[in-house]
Amino acid sequence: MSVAIIAHCDWSIDRKKRWMCVAVRRGTKWILSAPEPVGETKDLIARLRSRADTDGALLMGFDFPIGLPAAYGKSLGLADFRSALEAFGVGRFARWFDVAEHRHDIAIDRPFYPMRPGGTQRRYLFDALGVESGRDLLRRCERATADRGDACMLFWTLGGNQVGKASITGWREIIVPNLQDLALWPFDGKLRELTRPGAAVVAETYPGDVYGQLGIPRRPVWSKRLQAGRRRAGDHLLRWLFSHPHIDGAALEAMITDGFGIDKAGEDRFDAVVGLLGMLDVVEGRRAEGSPDDDDVTIWEGWIFGQGA
To answer: At what angle do helices 266-283 and 250-258 cross, to 10 degrees?
Structure first.
């Protein structure tokens, strides 16, 4: 595996809340940078590549869904997820990225709903997309695990845990414009196959799953939205860094000890770091990449990097 740079981006539809943490390989060591704003997305890949002193692969993690529910994907008349990305936004799918304002606007080629609260029901979405329940619109990796409940459906765009609007911006700004130059994990292969010299690889992440992987306990209850909660969890991040001496996290230590700042972006900086440490565990083989050898997963749904199958 030839990985020169790993970047984890904590994503948001609000550009001010997009933060990333980057690891650069220098010989046998990884040098970690302090969290920084993602900045302009048009040149993000070029900016990240410029940090490497080798032609090793660039691996980027984003915490928005990268994939489609298999039940929905199979209804499109397209070959796979990559083909769908090429089709969305043009021709029949010209309005695919436009969130439906009314129940009568929902369709196979315009699946995101609703634009705003008021008179909305999830049943309208199920009926328009021809599925029985919300479970049919959940990817396998989004379904409940021993540590968390079901995630929010990709196409439902209402509520604090909705992910649809973040996916729309992520796909339109990062993936679709660079599709011909990107390898999509796990659709295009296993990590070792994709991380060739000069490659740029994109993977979906979920920092909430990584908390437990890094040893951050659920009890006593803590909140990443509070500086005190992040400071408490930070003790476990420091312990992780100290136990991996070949990973130089000196640039992070003061921020971790401080709880990532008192401002509202503190939780975004926190998740940017957590996600990066989880990606390092996978790249270095301490944790399996997780994606099962399942046609629905590799053709339509994708997987969360490092999540056990």
So the answer is: 140
